[in-house]
Each structure stands twice: as C-alpha cells, then as structure tokens.
C-alpha cells in the first residue's frame, strides 16, 4: 500500500532532550516536506527536499534540522526542543518536480515538550 | 512571494444545504491551488486542485471550486452538505517560481448540523 509513515505517533519529552521524528515513503517520490500545525495558524512549512541531498528552508525552520540521505526517508531533528515546539507535525511527499502534484500526508506526530 | 487567506475560520451549515468556503490568494507567478480536507485525528486528503486548465474544478465527494483570476479567489462549494463533511478545510497555494514552498491558509472548520 502506498503510504507515508511517521513515527512516533505521540511523543512527550523535556526541554533540551534531542529527538528525531522519522518519515518514510514507499512511492519513490522525489519531493518530501515537513509541516507543523497549530490552532488558528493552519499548517506551516518547516523544511522541504526536492531530492536526495537537496533540502531547503520553509517558513519556520528555526530550531529544526533535516537530512535526506536516501530517497525514502526524511527525518526531522530537534536538537534542543523547547516548549514552543509543542505542536502536531506532518510529513508529506509528492512525485517528480512540478507544482501540480498532490501531496501524500502521513498521519501526524503529536509532540509535547515540557 | 505567495500567501493564502481563508476568510472564515468557522462555518456552520445544516445537512442538505449548500456549503461555501472562501479562499483568496496572492501570488506573483502562476499559481497552482489546492483544497485539502482534514477529518478529526487524520492526515490531510486532497479534495481538488487547479492547475491552469479549466477554471471550474470538480473534486471528490461532490465538491467543486472556481478559480477567478480577477478576484484572486478559489472558493470551495458543495450543493448539499452531508454529516460526513464535518472537518477542517485548507486552501493551499504553490507557484511555479518556487514550487517547493507551499502556503496553507489558516483553515476553515465546518460544522454540519442535522
């Protein structure tokens, strides 16, 4: 089944403790991206990747890192999480590079930073 | 640069009556526009997309949207609401000059009453 898989589904952590949220897709998509969803703000793009080893900042990249060492995986890294990073996070992917392609979304990761 | 404004944060309709969700965008380049739906505790699903072909776009579940360049709008409509339409809806813009970046609207929460 074609899907985008995020792990974990829920995560509670403490300020400053490094964490990684994984994202994997099995559709051979070139484009992958991360978003955070906060009430009243919709989804805001954190980082995106056009292909392996090609990443770029979205609108809210501060406090986050990403890497794209292989096509299927696009992990989101929080080196030193803070409470303002408490949010619902979504990973998404789409096929080869045109603006018309739809996004396939993961089921989300609810992160709480205490 | 691009941006999206969803004019209503909440819309309440009775089952069987029409639904209108309003979206205005700004873009310096030709936009691709999308509507996504998010049901409670789920990821996002594409409803429909505009990609410079027909200005009236039909999507899934009876939804349609009309692209009006002169008004920079992409409003979503459905003639008759169903209980299963209760969800949050997001208008999204992507442009050809920087298609890796996406802008989401803040979302419209739709409530359907019997």
Report the strand count of chain B: 12
Element string of chain A (H = helix, E = strand): EEEEEEEEEEE
Number of helices of chain A: 0
Number of strands of chain A: 11
Helix amount of chain B:
under 10%
Low-confidence stretches of chain A: none
In short, what is this structure?
The complex is a heterodimer of chains A (114) and B (114). Chain A has 114 residues and is mainly beta.
Give an overview of the whole structure:
The complex is a heterodimer of chains A (114) and B (114). With 114 residues, chain A is an all-beta fold. Chain A is built from no helices and eleven strands. Chain B is an all-beta fold. Helices cover 0% and strands 56% of the residues of chain B. Chain B has strands at residues 2-6, 10-14, 19-21, 23-27, 31-38, 44-50, 56-58, 64-68, 73-78, 87-95, 103-104, 108-113. Chain B is globular and about 45 Å long. The relative contact order of chain B is 0.34. Chain A binds chain B through residues 4, 31, 33, 35, 40-45, 48, 50, 56, 58-59, 90, 92, 97-100, 102-103, 105-108, and chain B through 6, 9, 32, 34, 36, 42-46, 49, 51, 90, 94-96, 99-107.
């Amino acid at each position: 089944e074609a899907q985008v898989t995020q792990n974990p589904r829920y995560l509670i952590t403490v300020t400053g403790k490094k964490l990684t949220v994984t994202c994997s897709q099995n559709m051979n998509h070139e484009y992958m991206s991360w978003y955070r969803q906060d009430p009243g703000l919709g989804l805001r793009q954190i980082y995106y990747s056009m292909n392996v080893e090609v990443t770029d900042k979205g609108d809210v990249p501060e406090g986050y890192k990403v890497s794209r060492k292989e096509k299927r995986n696009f992990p989101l890294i929080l080196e030193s999480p803070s409470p303002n990073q408490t949010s619902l996070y979504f990973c998404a992917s789409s096929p080869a590079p045109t603006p018309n392609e739809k996004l396939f979304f993961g089921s989300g990761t609810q992160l709480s930073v205490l | 640069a691009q941006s999206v404004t969803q004019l209503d944060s909440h819309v309440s309709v009775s089952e069987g009556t029409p639904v209108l969700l309003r979206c205005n965008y700004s873009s310096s380049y030709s936009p691709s526009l999308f509507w996504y739906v998010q049901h409670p505790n789920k990821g996002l699903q594409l409803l429909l997309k505009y990609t410079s072909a027909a200005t009236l776009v039909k999507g899934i579940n009876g939804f349609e949207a009309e692209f009006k360049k002169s008004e920079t709008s992409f409003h979503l409509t459905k003639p008759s609401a169903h209980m299963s339409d209760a969800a949050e809806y997001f208008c999204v813009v992507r442009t050809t000059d920087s298609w890796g970046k996406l802008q989401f609207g803040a979302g419209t929460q739709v409530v359907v009453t019997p």
